[in-house]
Amino acid sequence: MSAALQATNEPPVLRGGEGAVAVLTLNRPASRNSLSRAMLAALSAELAAVAADDGVRAVVLAANGPAFSAGHDLKELTARRADPDGGEAFFRECMAACAAVMQAVAGLPQPVVAAVEGIATAAGCQLVATCDLAVAAETARFATPGVDIGLFCSTPAVALSRAVARKPAMEMLLLGEMVPAEEARRIGLVNRVVPAGQAFGAAMGLAQRIASRSAVAVRMGKRAFNRQLGLPLPDAYEAAGAVMVENLLAEDAAEGIGAFIGKRQPAWRHR
After folding, report:
1. Which of 210, 67, 66 is closest to 133 using CA atoms?
2. CB atoms within 10 A of CB 83
3. Is 3-211 in CATH node 3.30.1310.20?
4. What CATH class has 215-261?
5. Sequence-ordered alpha helix ranges (H) in 176-232
6. Model confidence over 206-262: pLDDT tens digits?
């Protein structure tokens, strides 16, 4: 069996893990892990499985091959122009599927850490921007280059504009230029930059630290953080205050505060 055929026969997304950290790996290196309909469907299914798994307390999102993800599969999209409607129905289906995956990442109870080696462009950059944290190799590069081919990156802009400030986001969207890893860190697209080949290990390190905390506190915190972002200031404080009260009533908060006062390590029960 050829290497290409063997790769095609493997799942588009692989699930592994270590302890309480799940690892989801994009697994179509020959197509630069483009977000085809098959890739999106597989990623959606794996995210749903992780969300329902109480044993998972953090997630690392990685990729096989020289690219993290090159975004939508342009060959797949172009082929559907031959459809009777010019591809409109399929295009709508793809955009809806991609939006659902991005929202699944943002809404996942567990924090998601991206491990980026190589390029992350268009919807691939969108995926990185959607993750809660991101670690990039110093050789990684990011872009939203749709403007170069007459297709503005409007959906990647949703995630990008929520991860970085307005002007850096618009610069990426209007110019389509590759952004080096250090610049991506400076503008807030990624958290940390590490030597080439070390992004996965560094992302795992962050995920394991997160997983060592109280799962109930982390889940409440992620949900509250994302919710308050879209609220007016008084409403944001009201919503966050309600979560703080809920968190204070949890067993782990009592344990953690007691451990802090008693100068001992907490024994989390994740409830």
Report:
1. 210
2. 12
3. no
4. mainly alpha
5. 181-187, 199-211, 215-229
6. 999 999 999 999 999 999 999 999 999 999 999 999 999 999 999 999 999 999 999
